[in-house]
């Protein structure tokens, strides 16, 4: 936080303007993700659709995003941050499923708008990684899989055991297939979404 405030102060002095929320926000983004990139209107529009898919699925899960931006910085085109309550230490199975749906909501929104063929882009790679990590944690760490049961196994142990590795791949695959297929249908059936 100190580096953000220091950068914001330097920016305000350099621009000869008072320190305000806009400068603080830019200093935060610069510190966390780097300089803004301008990748054009078409790219920005696609990122806006993708990020709004995350926000919409987050909302359907009963939450509100803490922060959302479509400004490209670092290695991403935009991002949505969850509130502290969304990622707190105690989360139910349903809350984690909602987080997975939220992670997959960006791709779902792109599929709804651009179609099956053009709606799948590499823009969702971080989202898929996040969803997969949550699914693995639900199975290996939280005992939230009916077939695997209430057992706990480290990622290292799971990797070493070939039989378990196949089970995890099958379970994670089935969970990832089951939940994201609902995301586009949820998006399509909500009236607010059709304004796009």
- Beta-strand share of residues: 5-15%
Detail the poorly predicted runs: 192-196
**Sheet having the most strands:** 2 strands, antiparallel
Order of helices and strands: HHEHEEEHHHH
Radius of gyration: 19 Å
Structural class, from helix and strand content? mainly alpha
Q: Reading side by side through the largest sheet, how are the strands ordered?
A: 1-3
Helix content: 55-70%
Q: Note the gap between the termini.
A: 37 Å
Helix segment tally:
7
Return the average pLDDT rounded to an integer.
Answer: 80
Description:
The chain has 196 residues and is mostly helical. Helices cover 63% and strands 5% of the residues. It has 7 helices and 4 strands, in the order H-H-E-H-E-E-E-H-H-H-H. The protein has helices at residues 2-15, 21-33, 41-60, 93-118, 125-140, 155-160, 162-189, and strands at 36-37, 67-69, 72-73, 79-81. A two-stranded antiparallel sheet has the order 1-3. Strands 2-4 form a two-stranded antiparallel ribbon. Helix 1 (2-15) packs across helix 2 (21-33) and helix 4 packs across helix 7 (162-189). It is globular and about 65 Å long. The two termini are 37 Å apart. The model is unreliable at 192-196 (pLDDT under 50).
């Amino acid at each position: 936080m100190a580096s953000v405030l220091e950068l914001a102060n330097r920016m305000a002095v350099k621009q000869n303007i008072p320190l305000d929320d806009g400068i603080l926000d830019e200093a935060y983004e610069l510190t966390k993700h780097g300089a803004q990139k301008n990748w054009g209107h078409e790219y920005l529009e696609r990122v806006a659709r993708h990020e709004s898919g995350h926000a919409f699925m987050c909302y359907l899960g009963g939450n509100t995003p803490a922060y959302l931006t479509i400004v490209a910085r670092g290695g991403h085109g935009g991002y949505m941050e969850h509130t502290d309550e969304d990622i707190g230490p105690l989360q139910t199975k349903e809350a984690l499923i909602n987080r997975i749906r939220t992670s997959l909501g960006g791709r779902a929104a792109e599929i709804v708008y651009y179609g099956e063929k053009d709606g799948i882009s590499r823009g969702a790679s971080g989202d898929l990684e996040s969803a997969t990590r949550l699914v693995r944690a639900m199975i290996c760490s939280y005992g939230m899989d009916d077939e695997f049961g209430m057992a706990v196994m480290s990622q290292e142990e799971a990797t070493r055991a070939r039989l378990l590795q196949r089970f995890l791949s099958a379970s994670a695959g089935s969970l990832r297939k089951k939940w994201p297929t609902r995301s586009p249908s949820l998006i399509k059936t909500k009236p607010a979404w059709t304004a796009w």
